[in-house]
Write a structure and sequence with these properties.
The complex is a heterotrimer of chains A (358), B (116) and C (173). With 358 residues, chain A is mostly helical. Chain A folds into 2 domains: 1-84, no CATH class; 86-354, no CATH class. Chain A is 69% helix and 0% strand. The model of chain A has no long low-confidence stretch (mean pLDDT 84). Chain B has helices at 4-27, 56-85, 87-110. The longest helix of chain B is centred in the middle third of the chain and has 30 residues, at 56-85. Chain C is mostly helical and 173 residues long. Chain C contains 6 helices and no strands. Chain C has helices at residues 3-24, 28-48, 52-76, 89-112, 127-135, 143-172. In chain C, helix 1 (3-24) packs antiparallel against helix 2 and helix 2 packs antiparallel against helix 3. Classes of the chains: A mainly alpha (358), B mainly alpha (116), C mainly alpha (173). Chains in contact: A-B, A-C, B-C. At the A-B interface, helix 2, helix 3, helix 4, helix 7 and helix 12 of A face helix 1, helix 2 and helix 3 of B.
Chain lengths: 358, 116, 173
């Protein structure tokens, strides 16, 4: 069977046999870097196109349909346009921080790719603290946003950045608590252990109602953390002229945009890993025949299928719920989600100790 | 790939971002114009300083966030072992969370979680 | 020089360099950002030492928490955008002298201390180990400090609410 892990094994053995160890290692690093860059570029193109198509169909429109066959090349054309745009720096801006901010956002988005298992045995770094690494590195992005908003010398940007900062840090808490409720059931922070524990069923099915509560809270929290509608008041085009990246243009704007979509992908990938089994095919307990049929579908397709389903759900939110006001937003987190998720953690603990889950 | 993947990822992020910005710098022929570099305020001229004083509410939320953040950090090692230790661990965390919940109730009572 | 050593010196340069810039920066927001890089450098050291859990805690608490708090408190001040005034020369000289003495003092201590590897094998720093030690109620466990942490956090929360609510009513007046 051809799988992503067998391809990497073949490449690795070929590199090891043709070059001396140091060069082979370096070449491996270069290849990994190029792969991640390609993944980022493709993700940006695909997700922006998907966003536009999904929103078009939800509003009974057709969406982009002129550039290329059925509009498939629309986002490529957009990228080319952004590449040709001038990158302006506003007068009176803090130039150093203004230029630094896109790099900070980009690095934090890229670093989050390390622990994600894209397919069976296809993962850059299966570190011991997997999910904790994700929630810690994702907190660097908020600094990039605050930096961008501050350095722009624009009131809209600063206001957007402040709102965005308050929002991201608040919702980080309930996202963390929903991650913890799965960690309790698994007993490990390692991504590979979390996936392996879902061999006989995904946690959303095995974990009864507490797991479903955790999943719903996770979805709400990550929607807020990625500044997506209905929590997009920090970047509301109609109120704040796009918030912290008002002054960014050209390629720097494109980098912010790309990092945002990459972050959506990452949080959905983590959600799929925790609750929907990552690359693990859909298994039902001990039904051997059924499980074998499901195993024929490659693991990477399972992973990307689940992740894109969650991305679709988050895009769906955008056209379903109206935008929240900042006091409603903070109320929702501090008065409802945080107490509920704390209580839910205790419920999950009782369930894990009593072994009520399957 | 181990811990080296962090270095690889940081370098590729910098290469990717710098590549894009430098390419666009080469391709673009910008025309200098003082109006262009004005801060964008929907065509209206900016009044006063950008860096104004902000509401203390943001600071308050950041403070309360920090305390809960530390609490969650303590929950991670607990969550890993709670299944194997059992009821003692549950009791310990219930005391821990109860004391913090008192703080949460205090914040609620004092109106610290209200946006003004 | 091995790759590991190069990485060590790069991290040291990042930590010390941005620490120095944090002290000397004239804009207060820039100082906060340089402090952030210094803290990230320290997290990098923990990753370098393979103490991943401590590294993640460093990032979660210091980078994601404290620095955000510092930035928000900068936004509270009225003159956040203006440059800080140059400190008087006397203060520069004395603080430089204090830093120099601190450096010499710690250097003397470090150079006199013999760094011998201990006889007993080191404890594995896995999260599970940390967790079981933290919840252990025996004499060797840390259950009591763990519970005391919650009281500390409670005290911190009450304190910050008292201070911030007071300033909120002041600004309202």
């Amino acid at each position: 069977m051809w799988s992503l892990s067998s391809i990497t094994d073949i490449v690795q053995t070929w590199l090891g046999s043709t070059f001396n160890p140091t060069i082979a290692l370096l070449l491996q690093f270069v290849m990994a870097g190029l792969l991640v860059i390609t993944l980022f570029a493709v993700l940006g193109l695909v997700l922006v196109f998907m966003e536009r198509k999904v929103s078009a169909y939800m509003q009974v429109r057709i969406g982009p349909n002129r550039v290329g066959p059925r509009g498939y090349l629309q986002t490529a054309a957009d990228t080319l346009k952004l590449l040709m745009k001038e990158g302006l720096v506003p007068a009176g801006a803090d130039k150093f921080l203004f230029n630094l901010a896109p790099y900070v956002v980009m690095i934090s988005a890229m670093l989050l790719m390390a622990p994600i298992a894209f397919a069976k045995d296809f993962q850059m770094w299966d570190l011991n603290i997997g999910v904790l690494y994700v929630s810690s590195v994702s907190s660097i992005a908020v600094i990039g946003i605050l930096m961008a908003g501050w350095s722009s010398n624009n009131k809209y940007s600063l206001l957007g950045a402040m709102r965005s900062g308050a929002q991201i840090v608040s919702y980080e808490l309930s996202a963390g608590l929903s991650i913890i409720s799965i960690v309790i059931l698994v007993g490990s922070l390692k991504i590979s252990d979390i996936i392996a524990s879902q061999q006989d069923g995904w946690w959303i099915f095995k974990g009864h109602i507490p797991a479903i509560i955790a999943f719903v809270i996770f979805l709400i929290a990550v929607t807020a953390e990625t500044n997506r509608a209905p929590f997009d008041l920090a970047e509301a085009e109609s109120e704040l002229t796009a918030g912290f990246h008002t002054e960014y243009s050209g390629m720097r704007f494109a980098l912010f945009f790309l990092a945002e979509y990459a972050n959506i992908f990452i949080v959905c990938a983590i959600g799929a890993t925790l609750f929907l089994g990552g690359w693990m095919p859909f298994h039902i307990g001990n039904l051997q025949a059924f499980n074998h049929i499901m195993d024929y579908i490659p693991s990477s397709i399972w992973f990307f299928g689940k992740t894109f389903f969650l991305i679709f759900v988050i895009m769906w939110f955008r056209w379903t719920f109206p935008r929240l006001r900042i006091d409603q937003l903070l109320n929702l987190e501090w008065k409802y989600l945080l107490p509920i998720s704390m209580f839910n953690v205790l419920l999950v603990t009782i369930m894990a100790i009593m072994k009520w889950h399957f | 790939m181990g811990a080296a993947s962090m270095i690889v990822l940081i370098i590729s992020a910098i290469v990717f971002a710098a590549g894009g910005i430098i390419t666009s710098k080469i391709l673009v022929m910008g025309i200098k114009n003082p109006v262009k570099s004005q801060p964008y305020e929907c065509g209206v001229e900016t009044i006063g300083n950008t860096w104004v004083q902000f509401n203390v509410g943001y600071y308050l939320f950041a403070l309360i966030f920090l305390i809960f953040d530390v609490e969650i950090v303590f929950l991670y090692p607990w969550a890993v072992v709670v299944k194997s230790i059992g009821w003692t661990a549950l009791l310990e965390i219930m005391i821990f969370l109860f004391i913090l919940f008192l703080g949460f109730l205090y914040a609620h009572k004092k109106g610290a979680l209200k946006w003004v | 020089m091995e790759a590991k050593e190069i990485i060590f010196y790069l991290l040291a340069a990042l930590t010390l360099g941005s620490g120095l810039l944090a002290v000397t920066a004239r804009k207060i927001f820039r100082a906060a950002i340089f402090l952030l890089f210094s803290l990230i450098g320290i997290a990098g050291f923990y990753f370098w030492l393979q103490y991943e859990f401590i590294a993640a805690v460093q990032i979660v608490v210091y980078v994601g928490g404290i620095v955000v708090l510092i930035i928000f408190s900068i936004f509270l001040t009225q003159q956040a955008g203006t440059d800080l005034p140059n400190p008087p020369l006397r203060r520069i000289i004395f603080s430089a002298l204090a830093a120099l003495f601190g450096l010499i003092f710690s250097w003397m201590l470090i150079s006199q201390h013999p760094f011998k590897p201990g006889a007993e094998s080191p404890v594995a720093v896995s999260v599970a180990n940390i967790g079981s030690m933290m919840l252990n109620v025996n004499d060797t466990g840390y259950a009591l400090p763990f519970e005391l942490v919650s009281i500390l956090l409670l005290a911190a929360m009450v304190g910050c609410i008292v201070i911030a609510i007071k300033s909120r009513t002041e600004t309202a007046n």
